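Recall the central idea of this unit: under ordinary conditions, the amino acid sequence of a chain determines the structure it adopts. In this exercise we apply that idea directly, starting from the sequence alone.
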Amino acid sequence: MPQRPYIVGNWKMHGTRAMLSEARAIDRAAQRHMKVEVALAPPYTLIHPVHREAEQIGVGAQDCHHEDGGAHTGDISAAMVADAGAKFVILGHSERRQNHAESDEIVRAKAEAALSAGLRIILCCGESEETRAAGDAVAFVKEQLKASLPADHAVLTNGSANAPERVTIAYEPIWAIGTGNTATVEDIAEMHGEIRALLIELFGEEEGPEIRILYGGSVKPENASQILSTAEVGGALVGGASLTADSLMGIALAAAEADEA
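Accordingly, the structure predicted from this sequence is:
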């Protein structure tokens, strides 16, 4: 059975307790759009407060450390974010890869830690403008994704749930994040199709087709319908447009309409 479209708001480094009203509004609106799965990844400081407010939406973290604990000042383990109420974690976001020099190996270690802690993962991949201009976008993204996913299938399933319930992929072309630029429908369809082929190769004909692939890169209500109607797009990872209920739920409504079309 196909999974519902998945709309995930990544609040990045935005949000104090004053924004709990927006989280509450998103949650209440999501209860009227049950055909779409809606989730928020607020900053660490708001995971527990949003979790307490949420009746419908999923609540997650924007990152976690790959170690269980220890002398890692300023870092937070997967077990800690789970304890705060997170059910998933975003990993390998381009801003983490670029600003914190996270390699594929580090992202893979974080994914293994998160899955072992019982969290679902949203694993990000995407190319730079230079890589795309050189004609290497597809090869780069597939290699990045393959190197960032845990190789051990038992880790992915955690001994119980299947991979599509534990793993989501988010394709986010770096040149389209926060720039106002959006990949063309043809660009998105090509890359999502290539990612789907890789997932089938890695997970087989039963699980590979069911793992959701989100698009992330300046998604907003105005362009959401076109993007979410594209082949192999199972939802969106939304940045700035997720900071208000009106904007995020406009994208969720577009996802519902695309799913019915």
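The longest strand covers residues 120-125.
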